[in-house]
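This follows on from our talk about sequence and fold. Can you supply me with one protein entry, sequence and fold together? Could you add the entry underneath, on a fresh line?
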Amino acid sequence: MKLQKKIQAIVFALFMTTFVNAQNKPASPAAVATGKINGANISVNYSSPSVKGRVIWGELVPFNKIWRAGANAATIIETDKDLIVEGSKLAAGKYSFFVIPNEKECVLIFNKVSKMSGTNNYNEKEDQLRVTVKQQLAGSSTESLVYTINENSIVLSWEKWNIPFSVK
């Protein structure tokens, strides 16, 4: 009888450990993309939401409204050297990064206030740079939002879209 109670206690402990660990897993985990472009160290700090069967562009992320380019707090882009983003200068620094998507193009915003919990405290007067880019339809769907730093670009990929922007 004692052995049966020990086995039940072990099974219960394993179940509770699994349950507690599942509860502590964030729906949109923190992520960081890092890389170098033209000698500049660049990092993108963001929270990575998942599609989970939802329509993202135009529904979960509405068209023509500012979006924090990730989940939870605003996405942060940091560079230790000046960059040229889509032909315009972005001074070295730390920026909140936002996107205003629509059906044909996206406005990318680098805002000087680097600590925001989303878009509630967003002030357009604090924008360092705004550029417009055309999104691309992806060949396959990307379940979890991801940023990729390439040799001459940064790409935001999520669901059926890639939003690339050139960086020099």
